[in-house]
UniProtKB/TrEMBL annotation:
<protein>
    <recommendedName>
        <fullName>RmlD-like substrate binding domain-containing protein</fullName>
    </recommendedName>
</protein>
<dbReference type="Pfam" id="PF04321">
    <property type="entry name" value="RmlD_sub_bind"/>
</dbReference>
<dbReference type="InterPro" id="IPR036291">
    <property type="entry name" value="NAD(P)-bd_dom_sf"/>
</dbReference>
<dbReference type="InterPro" id="IPR029903">
    <property type="entry name" value="RmlD-like-bd"/>
</dbReference>
<feature type="domain" description="RmlD-like substrate binding">
    <location>
        <begin position="7"/>
        <end position="279"/>
    </location>
</feature>
Amino acid sequence: MGVNGSLLVVGAKGYVGAAIIAEASRRGLTIAGTSSLGGNGLLPLDLAHPEKFDYQAVSKDWTIVLTAAISSPDHCSNNYDNAYAINVTGTTHFIERALARGAHVIFLSSDAVYGEAPFPVTEDTPCRPVGAYAEMKLEVERRFQSDPGFKVARLSYVFSRQDKFTRYLLDCAANGITAEIFHPFARNVIHLGDVVDGLLALHDRWEATANVVNFGGSRSVSRLDIARAIKRLVARQLDIREISPGPDFFKDRPREIQLVSTRLESLLGRPLRSIDQAIQIDFNIGDH
């Protein structure tokens, strides 16, 4: 599969999906996308009813990046049947049909498949998922793990100025509201640009890349660390208050996952960005 092949992003309106579409378009790739309702140039694909999708549109020349899912751990736990129908049943149906058409599929999974990990976990670390969301992701992974047309990108927390938490911090700073920050709560945060570049490199170097790649940063970063970095570099007026999430918050999500990769920097051809570098890039601050 080469860089000139077609790329289909499932979940093109989502946070990661929209960024892939934008960067792939900038690079001149032939690209298409799906959304649950379609329209505006997007193909209609509802993972609750994947049998309705027009699979004739998928060819062996495509790489499909499957970003769509119900990703809220709380929703997956509290509305298990609904989430399972989309995250496992519908997703599995779609992947099976896409692979049968000869397409390649990159499945976006989660660092939560490793469970609580206050120590570095690599692609070779055994999975011990915490919460329904992680269990669903791992079930799909295992269903297709031996298929050469299927690869897994396990994502940690993906930072950009558009992520939900950073938008919350910026809104608090703009409106003079104290930002309440859950602590302890940490991940090996990765910049959205690193994720997009890595996924496009995986598309370009399919045969040369292992079946599982961890997309995590080089060190553990807490939500409090992110807030302090935003305050230091972007919004000095930001007022921060540390609060405890409480035990129920961690029922479906680990406190810390130190997701690292033995493969990602080689795939990127460059070092991963630190949280300070990511902020400087996204907010166009100084040299980066």
